[in-house]
Design goal:
Length: 159
């Protein structure tokens, strides 16, 4: 319901989400948050719900299907001008996940990732910004899982 939230609120909500999912999946995956320690960063206003859909994809479409312990790493750092976020998992990746979908799952079109991409486009137009998302399947580099990278300007032209 908010256009922007403090970064600290976004991260706390994301941590609660991951903890709930870990409990729900009987702690079959490990998770790690590596967040640069910076007071100003915690106060930075950011659009909510840009990260959660990718963490959800990592859990529900990636690590859910592996036989070993799943791992999700969420790293957040900043440069002078940008907040850099990386979400990485050791799941099965997009292509294998698509092959495992049930008939019912194939009938339902997931909207999480596409909603975020549309939102990024709208935010970039609305605030004359350059929020950037990169998704990479690790199988392309001989590993399994996904890497999501998000670059968000620290100073959006909020009016």
């Amino acid at each position: 319901n908010h256009q922007f939230l403090r970064f600290e609120e976004i991260i706390e909500t994301l941590k609660m989400y991951v903890e709930l999912e870990s409990f729900r999946f009987n702690h079959e995956f490990l998770y790690e948050f590596d967040i640069e320690n910076d007071e100003n960063l915690l106060e930075t206003p950011l659009p909510p719900m840009l990260l959660q859909p990718f963490v959800e994809n990592s859990i529900w479409h990636g690590i859910r299907y592996i036989e070993t312990k799943g791992e999700i790493s969420i790293s957040i750092s900043k440069t002078k001008d940008y907040l850099l976020i990386q979400i990485e998992d050791n799941g099965i990746g997009v292509e294998k996940s698509k092959k495992l979908k049930t008939t019912h799952q194939k009938q339902i079109k997931g909207r999480g990732s596409s909603n975020v991409k549309e939102r990024i486009q709208i935010l970039n137009e609305l605030y004359n910004s350059d929020i950037h998302l990169e998704e990479k399947e690790k199988s392309k580099i001989n590993l399994s899982g996904m890497i999501y990278k998000l670059r968000i300007p620290l100073k959006l032209n909020i009016k």
